[in-house]
Amino acid sequence: MSIPLLICDDSNMARKQVARSLPDGWDVDISFATNGKEGIEAIKAGKGDVLLLDLNMPLMDGYQVLETIVKEDLNTMVIVISGDIQPEAHQRVTSLGALDFIQKPVNKTKLTEILSAYGIFTQYDNEEKPLPIVIEKAPVAHVELAPLTHPAATVSVNKEVLTEDFFLDPELRDCYQEIANVAMGQAGDLLARLLDVFVVLPIPNVNLIEVSELSMALSDVEEQESTSGICQGFIGAGISGEALLILNDSSFKDVASLMNYKYEVDESTELELLMDLANVLIGACLNGVSAQLDMPFSQGHPVVLGQHKKISELIATNSKKWKRTLAIEISYSIEDYSIKCDLLLLFTEESMRTLNNKISYLLD
Question: Given 14, 79, 273, 349, which is the most exposed site by the fewest CB atoms within 10 A?
Answer without folding.
Answer: 349
